[in-house]
Amino acid sequence: MLCRLCSRVAVALSVASSTAWAGSFLVSYEAPASCPDRAAFVRGVEERVPDWRVVDAGGERAVSVRIRTTDAGFSGSVELDGAPSAREVDGVQCESVVRALALVAAVGLDPNAVLGGVAEPPPPPTSPPPSAAPSPLAHPTPAPTEPHDSASPALSGGFGAGAAAMLGPAPSALYGVEVHAWIGSAEGRFLARALGARLVTGSVAVGSGHARFELTHGELGLCYRPLRGTVRVTACAVTDLGQIQAAGESGGELVQGKTSKRLWGASGARLGAGYGLLGPLEVGANAGLLVPWKKQGYFFEDPVSPDENLYESAPLAIDFRLGATVIFP
Questions:
Q1: 316 falls in which pLDDT band (50, 70, 90)?
Q2: CA 329 to chain CA centroid, nearest Å
Q3: How many CA atoms lie within 13 A of 146 on its CB side?
Q4: What is the pLDDT of residue 251?
């Protein structure tokens, strides 16, 4: 009777040992809302190392994952047991970054892990050719290489629209809209930016009458982004070219209105900052300080003082822009 009981206990211990887990691990996971969640990362690890399980406390190993957005897409890092060096993976899509980080974590937990958790059959033994002597040293298994996203683009860009205001070329503020686009390096540090804008003043009291001012211009800029991350700072050297028009309005002492069209050209600098809002959407603001290539004076026919100088443009122009941009890799 006692032997029969011992036999049953031995069978139970054998079954329990065959179903025991190889180890347990903790997971610290930090990622943008648009990325797969922590559960998806854990599934990716456990599929590759099914003998390991995630726990909430008391794990044998610790896995720390951090994913952030970049100008080219997403960048993630994974640390094992608080090691000072982390493995990093970059990619255009966050889902591919999470899958790659899960593979790196699985290999760290079990170097024999294979993609998909399926063991590869061992290669058939091969005998050396008769003329070659067998090597006494076995070749070491190559270390797993870090996943690399071969689809990373060579360039990045964006396009958008915004509101604009400018002081200097007219006696009151010019205001209107702009459209802009830029293209740059993959990491977004160096870029070329172009915009087109149309600004107006409405009716402005000048001299003895009223006039309207309109500015239509384009701008080209070469820019540098010294800071990356959620907040992006941009500094640009810019050149503007377009046309400014002043149209006198008949009324009061001004008997006959007159329209004056002049070339508008200016060079200067622009400083701005953008904030990554949702996915590829960025909102931002910038200010520019421009030096016109020449001063402009505007004259209209006046019965009291002929060719009265209604307004002379300022030596500097300052403008402000608010806009939204869609960034694409």
A1: very high
A2: 8
A3: 12
A4: 64
Fold of 22-117: Double Stranded RNA Binding Domain (3.30.160)
Three-class SS of the chain: CHHHHHHHHHHHHHHHHHCCCCEEEEEEEECCCCCCCHHHHHHHHHHHCCCEEECCCCCCEEEEEEEEEECCEEEEEEEECCCCCCEEEEECCHHHHHHHHHHHHHHHHCCCCCHHHCCCCCCCCCCCCCCCCCCCCCCCCCCCCCCCCCCCCCEEEEEEEEEEEEECCCCCCEEEEEEEEEEEECCCCEEEEEEEEEEEEEEEEECCEEEEEEEEEEEEEEEECCCCCCEEEEEEEEEEEEEEEEEEECECCECCCCEEEEEEEEEEEEEEEEEEEECCEEEEEEEEEEEECCCCEEEECCCCCCCEEEEECCCCEEEEEEEEEEEEC
CB count within 10 Å of CB 280 equals 15
Give the torsion through C-alpha atoms of 27, 28, 30, 31, to 10 deg: -10
Any idea which fold 155-328 has?
Porin (2.40.160)
pTM of model > 0.90: no
CB–CB of 234/272 below 8 Å?
yes
> What does the domain layout of the chain look like in residue ranges?
22-117, 155-328
* Mean pLDDT confidence for 112-123: 49
Under a CB-based contact definition with an 8 Å cutoff, are residues 262 and 293 in contact?
no
